[in-house]
Amino acid sequence: MTAAASGSATPPRKRGRPARTSTSDGPAARDRILIAARNEFAERGYDKTSIRGIAKAAEVDPALVHHYFGTKEQVFEAAIELIFAPAMGVPDAVHGSREGAGERMARYMFGIWENPVSRLPLLAVMRSALTNETAAVVLRGMIERRVLVRMAGELDVPNPEFRAQLAAGHLIGIAMLRYVIRMEPMASAEADDIVAMVGPTLQRYLTES
């Protein structure tokens, strides 16, 4: 007797969203997708990363990536939030005594950039933003909402939003020269020496009326 006749044949697979299993769906799968997206964007940049590539790295169906995160732009936004998670603490570094706020901010940011684990994904995201307008819009929005608005809320000075942007722009410019372009002598300078030089300037942005 054949398998079909005995009724033991495997039913045909239905089209649509993948069947839910402990390995292909649920929080664990979502976390794998997010980590895979972070790694793919960091290694390949925005333009060369695809939903299919993220799904392959996460070992899930591409439909599941769309289910959890939506479009490629939305996946990128979720991934850079993960990448920029250490930088989200900048407002906390500014919080507290006005004295030394500029140095605390500079030391906090250079601590992130000097750590290879956090520096490499940050570099990749910044390069993506420089070459792709969609990536730039997503990154700009995330920095404004998650960092600059919070930091401005900590500043007791006129035009706090403008001051926060000046401070951030100062540090981003140095990061571009030191870590992206690698211009000397900036690239090989000691981080402590840079902090000592830029700290007073950031202090003026953050605290002087």
From TrEMBL:
One Pfam match: TetR_C_16
UniProt keywords, alphabetically: DNA-binding
Domain HTH tetR-type: 27-87
Protein name from the UniProt record: AcrR family transcriptional regulator
Residues in the DNA-binding region annotation: 50-69
Tagged with keyword DNA-binding: yes
InterPro entries: Homeodomain-like_sf, HTH-type_TetR-like_transc_reg, HTH_TetR, Tet_transcr_reg_TetR-rel_C_sf, TetR_C_16
GO molecular function: DNA-binding transcription factor activity; transcription cis-regulatory region binding
Span list, region Disordered: 1-29
Keyword DNA-binding: yes
